[in-house]
């Protein structure tokens, strides 16, 4: 679903997006070897066309070092590269607000919710900064704060918050994005260059129940820097700033690696007897448009205007996007089932990857490794 809707985002917000190729260097002793990593990216290639992405590439150790000279050469086996998009999140929010205002929305920045009001057995508005605002439908789309907002109406949206910290540098320190196995070998760290500098992160640790209490600590910062300097010894020891956020993951059992980032719309009328209140919870930034579609479609039904969302048909500047490719979407019931059963979801993924790995090995026998040069990498990703 994320890749499917990323295609819509590429079409509606194209001026805000920059292609971001990411290099995944593989060293001796890494948890995943070159063939496993390439298998993963061969599977990912099948989704790239949904979001205007380009197929993966494979580089030898020598060409990897030509592309990123600062990488440590010892133990380097080679690298795989895959395609992503970078977006300025603040500019994306601003453009969405401008689009909403063109359709008649009233935007209030810094307007917290003090109270959710009710009358005649239903939610009928909010109190914000002391002002009573009446509404036929209230949508709670507060990200990691959705549970705090739902509590104002006597409902709960159980979350399992995970915090992510980044180091931020004002300079662009690497020529391409990097995905690096962290010092604990339990997860990976991104090094992301952009027009705004370089980001390193994120961490992925349990966060306090109250997102207002989420804060980074020295151990996270040392972890990120140590993970990067394993591969980039000359990487600066001093960063310019740090950022930290909380992922609003819907409450689930299991370890961090099994947590699903799926979203869900909660109709509090049928769930809690609080008609007029809807919550959209979970998800991630790349799902923002499809999450909004899911929530507003339900709101429109409640308002007696059951028209499907059309935000994917025009750009944020109000221009038609033109022809939209059609791709099959994953089964919604299957997604919901696998989100609730993380171990089955893991087995489901391993089954697909096992079949893909066998196919990959067969391709190696028939076609060889298909290595590219640094110049071919630059030409491929533009």
Fold and architecture overview:
The protein is of the alpha+beta class and 382 residues long. The chain contains eleven helices and 16 strands. Strand 9 (177-181) and strand 10 (188-194) form a beta hairpin. Helix 2 (34-48) packs across helix 10 (342-367). The mean pLDDT is 93.
Which helices and strands, and how do they pair?
Layout (H helix, E strand, L loop, with lengths): L1 H11 L4 E11 L6 H15 L8 E3 L1 H7 L8 E12 L1 H14 L10 E7 L2 E7 L2 E4 L3 E3 L5 H6 L7 E11 L7 E5 L6 E7 L2 E5 L3 E2 L11 H12 L11 E10 L12 E5 H5 L4 E6 L5 H15 L29 H9 L1 H26 L3 E2 L1 H8 L1
Describe the structure using short key phrases.
382 residues; ten-stranded mixed β-sheet; three-stranded antiparallel β-sheet; 11 helices
What is the H-and-E element order?
Answer: HEHEHEHEEEEHEEEEEHEEHEHHHEH
> Given the C-alpha coordinates, what overall shape results?
globular
Roughly how many Å is the radius of gyration? 23 Å
Number of strands: 16
What fraction of residues sit in β-strands? 25-35%
Question: Which regions contain 5 or more consecutive residues with pLDDT less than 50?
Answer: none
| Contiguous helical run count | 11
| Structural class determined from secondary elements | alpha+beta
Helix content: 25-40%
The overall pLDDT average reads 93
Distance between the termini: 26 Å
Quick one: biggest sheet? 10 strands, mixed
Oligomer: single chain
Short description:
The chain is α+β, with helices and mostly antiparallel strands. The chain is built from eleven helices and 16 strands. 27% of the residues are buried.
